[in-house]
Predict the 3D structure of the following.
Amino acid sequence: MQSGEQNLRLVAHSLQDLSVIGSMLQDALVPVGDISFQSDANRFLIVFNRFCWEKAGEEGPYERIHASMRFESVEKVQYRGIDRSNPDIMLSLLTIAYDPDGAGEGKGAVVLQFAGNCAIRLLVGTLRCGLEDMGETWPTPWRPDHSKDES
């Protein structure tokens, strides 16, 4: 991070807010060991290695930074296709979706969709999400490329 630059700090209380956070986290990487549900506090935490899309042009240099995302008011967490016994497995985030009545009974559902058909579904009483960059950026020569995904 260059002198005078601010770390990203966002809050989401609506689908529109969450869409902004999702765009900032597209292609973020996370080892399974950096995913945590604190059931006693109804809090879900995840620490990503985030690609800095807001600074990326067509040509480098590119940057990454650690970013912490938290969801409050989480009542239940479900995992699909994720081997939680191996904390070193890396996941690549594709998108975040939210359905305010996705679980019925006034409960919403947040789905974090990862590459490889892996997903995490959060049952939430209300949407309360925060994203905050942590520390300094570091250079990376690689820019995520989705052109090979298009057919």
Summary: The chain has a mean pLDDT of 90. The first helix runs from residue 15 to 25. The radius of gyration is 16 Å.
